[in-house]
Specification:
There is one protein chain. By secondary structure, this protein is mostly helical. Helices cover about 65% and strands about 0% of the residues. The protein has one domain: Orthogonal Bundle (Hypothetical protein af1432), CATH 1.10.3210. Helix 6 crosses helix 7 and helix 8 crosses helix 15. The radius of gyration is 18 Å and the shape is globular. The N and C termini lie far apart (about 40 Å). Bound molecules: fe (ii) ion (2 copies). The site of one fe (ii) ion has 6 residues, from helix 13.
Amino acid sequence: MNPSDILKRIDRIGSLGTLPAVAEKINEAVAQDTCTPAVLAGIIEKDASLSAKVLKLANSSFYGLSRRVDTITRAITVLGFNLVRDTALTVSVHRMFSQQAGGINVEGLWLHSLACGVAAKDVLSFQQGSGGHEAFLGGVLHDIGVLLISRLVPDKISELYSGRHTIADVLATERKCIGTTHAEVGAYASEQWHFPASLVEMIRCHHQPRSARLSPRTAAAVFVGNEIAKALQLGTSISFFVSEIEPEVWGVLGITAADMHRLVKTVHSDFETARDLFAG
Ligand SMILES: [Fe+2]
Ligand SMILES: [Fe+2]
């Protein structure tokens, strides 16, 4: 398959409605300088289940707020535009994972993606004890290309992703069969969805964090988060084997081998919280 064939198919994703329309509206609104809390809240509140999930997330231990927020406007004031946008986009991405996909274990891939998001956030917040949310959505979206490929070329899925492989094997097979990789497909689609450039970079570089230029630290966090999710067998990844993490990547994140025990404990507990939040 020619690489441009699959990218042409991705160009039709918008019309196929793969990214929920509400997510596009939220994204567009936040990108405007004129966006106010009332405008963003108005978009989210039109979707009752999205609104309920955003409030549930905002009030969870995930964000560590000391006071309850009862309205979306209040959540925006307390958490900020970007965090509420990311929360709403995470809920929308979960919806994409809830739809049928050809030939892949979509629930397993969702749990793997959620675990990667949680671990990426925990890796970034490890030193300062909180924050790191900018990496969470990157983790949730890192393998979105796999979901898209499963919808665009369902007949290729068993050839691409069955069996126990290293990520190098998976990427080589993707290049051979479809002329591109899930990282490129995910990055291309997120550009079409007008996601922020740093988020596109996290998706594109999630297997090569050292090629990240805009925000190397968050890209490194998503890379490590992916490997932690695999090592802890949270969800189902397309590559079975955990990749080696180079000392330079740990260095960028300021984490040492001695920190791993505490980090893994935090990831386990945050993953349980996140899974429960999205289960209902
Ligand atoms: Fe990946
Ligand atoms: Fe992954």
